[in-house]
Amino acid sequence: MKFSFPACLFSCSTEVNNNDFADGEINDGSFRVFTYQQLKSATGNFSSKIGQGGFGSVYKGRLKDGSFVAVKVLSIEIESMRGEREFVAELATLANMKHHNLVSLKGCCVEGAKRYLVYEYMENNSLHHTFLGSEDKRERFSWEERKSISIGVARGLSYLHEELKPHIVHRDIKAKNILIDRSFTPKLADFGLAKLMRDEKSYISTRVAGTLGYLAPEYASSGQLRRKSDVYSFGVLLLQVITGLAVVDAYKDIERFIVEKAYAAYEANDLLRIVDPVLNRNYSAKEAIKFLKVGLLCVQENARLRPRMSEVVEILTNSNVDLKDVHISKPGFVADLRNIRIKQNMTTSSPQESGSSGTTFASSIWSVGNLAR
Ligand SMILES: Nc1ncnc2c1ncn2[C@@H]1O[C@H](COP(=O)(O)OP(=O)(O)OP(=O)(O)O)[C@@H](O)[C@H]1O
Ligand SMILES: [Mg+2]
């Protein structure tokens, strides 16, 4: 895949940017390079923070044309240059793709050791922030919305996996990376960790990234990156959307993982027992069972048995498809986080790089604090 980077992305001076864009809010929807001053003024000197991730903070801003943006600030770690790598990866990936279910990148800015990504602003923040977690939030999350958000995420992933050439593995599908716009359309975000797949062979990652609980077992144990690892994460997300359960319950000894709970209900032929109780039975039982079965199909231990994302879209959207007679094998999960084997030199890693729950981690971070909620 050839990327059409803005001509002077990493080397151009602010002067050139100023000339190109000074006060002139060229807003034709194309990717643009902002100056630091423009972003400073758009965000009121970075005064309105809307989120914090493992790689930096996110601020709300307003451009001169009146449109709202989310500005993500990444700091480069001089030694590892990790920040820059994420920045380049995210840009290269996002600047070239447009899809109803992908968040769009409006531009970027390079200033000293700081890198800024400018996204369209999503009024309803993330799936994690707006709809999951507390009962109050989940009560506002109807069955129809759960269905349409699940299907939208599946469509976005299907686009990345099967329509784009070469295809892209997102690597970090989780509720925090599903942003929700004004009309409740879900948009996949955070392609900072995405890797381009140039052929059908799996990519051996030099560091396992992702978020514990959403992480496919084969990816965690070998670093082997395939589209089916995203399918696994999608399956976890789907189970989460339908049940409202935490992805990992760190305080439990048995059935700690949502995939275990769901499989136990499936084996007992009683999947409905795990549908989110706050829905008060306001859903079609047939649909709920089908969605849960799709979630379980996606998290099967054997990656080859997991469906492709286009198949997932087809099953979820076609009311003639029921999964009555389908056999679902047991799910995989990363049971003992300490057993994760990483194909990289660990000596430069600090043991606890990030403590916030549900945060993306690099391979070196193994703390209970990283369990996805
Ligand atoms: N375009 C946007 N519009 C509105 N809110 C956003 C936007 N982008 C990000 N956010 C908010 O900022 C938060 C932080 O985003 P970020 O991608 O940096 O980290 P994260 O996904 O929460 O965690 P991680 O670093 O593990 O990926 C998001 O969870 C979301 O709440
Ligand atoms: Mg994110």
UniProtKB/TrEMBL annotation:
Domain of life: Eukaryota
Pfam families according to UniProt: Pkinase
Keyword Membrane among UniProt keywords: yes
Protein kinase domain sequence ranges: 44-321
Swiss-Prot/TrEMBL keywords: ATP-binding, Kinase, Membrane, Nucleotide-binding, Phosphoprotein, Receptor, Serine/threonine-protein kinase, Transferase, Transmembrane, Transmembrane helix
Binding residues annotated for ATP, in chain numbering: 72
Annotated localization: Membrane
UniProt-listed SMART domains: S_TKc (SM00220)
Recorded topology in the membrane: Single-pass membrane protein
GO molecular-function terms, A-Z: ATP binding; protein serine/threonine kinase activity
InterPro entries: CR_Ser/Thr_kinase, Kinase-like_dom_sf, Prot_kinase_dom, Protein_kinase_ATP_BS, Ser/Thr_kinase_AS
This protein's GO CC annotations: membrane
Protein family per UniProt: Belongs to the protein kinase superfamily.
Name of the protein in question: Protein kinase domain-containing protein
